[in-house]
Write a structure and sequence with these properties.
There is one protein chain. It contains 14 helices and 27 strands. By secondary structure, it is α/β, with parallel strands linked by helices. The two termini are 23 Å apart.
Length: 524
């Protein structure tokens, strides 16, 4: 149904929904009751959306356009081994249109996802040799060749396999693109504890831990050869002809005076320069080779799933939590909104919650997955639930929950006919989508004509009919707080005059144009 609604060749958000959409089914989200998880009202609500991710991305373009900081996806690799479904059929290795079908499938979704990224956003895509080259060209077209950052090689297994190929494949790729060439959302990795432990403070220098760096270098240099006398022992140090001191004699004397040259505890050791930890860049650039010893492997990912469910992973090549955490660490934004629209077993959700626990971040996630083989209901949702609430692993040890809040939605459609049923469904589901937009889920008041919700710092009101504005104003006057207010209207009047008497209490917000268009079509 969504294929009728969305123009996949559109280049701008306004072109995504053509005028011809009138009379067509409209995509919405419907909450699955009884599956919400709430551990802390002060935290943001994470989203799990079940359904075709094409439909999910369409709805997210109403609620999260240019609001996502980071996207990671692990799409089907199109190996021909029943891993990629196109038009309800698995694509076989012998299918002569195999690659073009996969590209068409990916193109529509990547174009929709690009509209969701902030200008400061970035996307990471896992892939292997089957579609790496076509995907790279597709991403150059959609995200811009100038926005290509790197192609990371991930070493995905401990040992090579004795398979039938001439060379055993032990790696996959991760393509990285930014939204804008003017922004640099990819930062430094945190320094490791092991690296910091190399800095000590044997002389109790008030400037803190330091590491000794040789004061000399190989090769001879003019003005780089002179005697250095230890102020502690009086010992004089001279270099052989093939070496020189790093600094001029004058600068070295200043460094000695500043206690930045170390001659050992007794003052008899070869002089070294002190490099203080506070002077070192507090992070390091990631390399394009990510080893399994650093970010995990397929095997470690299987063990993670087994530890949670007590049984072998149903996936041949799951991704480890540590791999997604590496991506989160590279973003350096601890308050980001993260999207994974090929969520699978829910690794990304666990990674976000784990990284928040580790560094005190406030990241929130949006996961989209279909329910093929009950993957959403039997794997992804239960995994997120266990990680939030806690569980016992295969050893019988109690693993404390990481906390967090979750809402579970399914993609749905509102038919275009102007029936009472469709009217009620449209305003209800649209109100839910506006709550997602505002991250406000606590229902405060509900009538047939308006709803009021609350999030951590404000209220959100949704008025279904213009005639209900007076009743809405009476209701909010009884509540202390500020109200972001959305009014469904048949015309273009922003209703500023109508709310003039509560101007300081209300901010009038624009309902996404596409939702309004469908509303007017059904209610006319």
């Amino acid at each position: 149904k969504i294929d009728i609604l969305i123009n996949p060749d559109a280049r701008t958000p306004n072109e995504m929904f053509p005028n011809e959409m009138a009379g067509k089914p409209f995509p919405v989200l419907k909450e699955v009751k009884g599956k919400a998880i709430e551990s802390d009202k002060s935290k943001l609500v994470n989203l799990l959306i079940e359904g075709d991710n094409y439909h999910s991305l369409a709805v997210l373009n109403f609620t999260h356009r240019e609001a996502v900081d980071l996207i990671y996806i692990d799409p089907p690799y199109n190996t021909g081994n029943n891993d990629f479904i196109y038009n309800d059929k698995f694509v076989d290795k012998e299918d002569s249109f195999r690659h073009s079908k996969w590209l068409s499938f990916m193109e529509k979704r990547l174009k929709l996802s690009r509209f969701l990224l902030k200008e400061t956003g970035a996307i990471f895509i896992s892939i292997d040799d089957n579609e790496q080259a076509p995907l790279r060209m597709l991403c150059d077209e959609i995200f811009g060749q100038e926005n290509f950052v790197a192609q990371v090689v991930w070493e995905k297994m401990y040992t090579t396999k004795n398979d039938s190929s001439m060379i055993s494949g032990a790696h996959e790729y991760i393509l990285i693109y930014t939204k804008s060439p003017d922004e640099k959302p990819i930062g430094l990795l945190p320094r490791s504890e092991e690296a910091d432990n190399r800095y000590t403070n044997p002389d109790n220098d008030p400037r803190g831990p330091w590491k000794a760096i040789p004061l000399y270098a190989k090769e001879e240099r003019k003005n780089g050869r002179y005697p250095i006398k230890s102020p502690l022992s009086g010992k004089v140090f001279e270099l052989p002809p093939n070496k020189h001191w790093l600094y001029s004699e004058e600068n070295t004397k200043e460094l000695i005076k500043d206690n930045r040259i170390w001659f050992g505890k007794g003052g008899t050791s070869m002089p070294n320069v002190k490099r203080f930890l506070t002077e070192v860049q507090q992070g390091m650039k990631a390399k394009t080779l990510w080893k399994f010893s650093e970010v995990g492997s397929n095997d470690s990912a299987k063990k993670e799933i087994k530890a949670i469910f007590g049984q072998e992973s149903p996936f041949d090549f799951p991704k480890p939590v540590t791999l997604i955490k590496r991506i989160l660490q590279l973003s350096q934004n601890k308050d980001l909104t993260f999207l994974d629209f090929f969520a699978g077993s829910g690794t990304s959700a666990q990674a976000v919650l784990s990284q928040n626990e580790e560094d005190g971040g406030h990241r929130n996630f949006i996961l989209c997955t279909n329910n093929e083989n009950n993957i959403s209901t039997d794997v992804c949702y239960p995994r997120i639930s266990k990680v939030i609430r806690g569980y016992k692993n295969t050893e019988g040890e109690k693993i404390e929950g990481l906390g967090g809040n979750l809402k579970y939605y399914k993609t749905d459609f509102v038919e275009a006919e102007p029936t009472d049923k469709n009217k009620r469904k449209l305003v209800k589901e649209s109100a839910d989508m506006l709550c997602i937009l505002e991250n406000a889920f606590e229902l405060v008041q509900e009538t047939a004509e308006f709803k009021i919700f609350k999030n951590t710092d404000k209220y959100v009101g949704v008025i279904f009919y213009e005639e209900a504005m007076d009743d809405y104003k009476k209701a909010i006057k009884k509540i202390d707080g500020h109200f972001n207010t959305y009014v469904f209207s048949m015309g273009d009047d922003p209703h500023t005059k109508k709310f003039a008497d509560v101007k300081g209490k209300v901010t009038l917000c624009a309902i996404p144009e596409v939702i309004l268009k469908v509303y007017r079509e059904i209610f006319k």
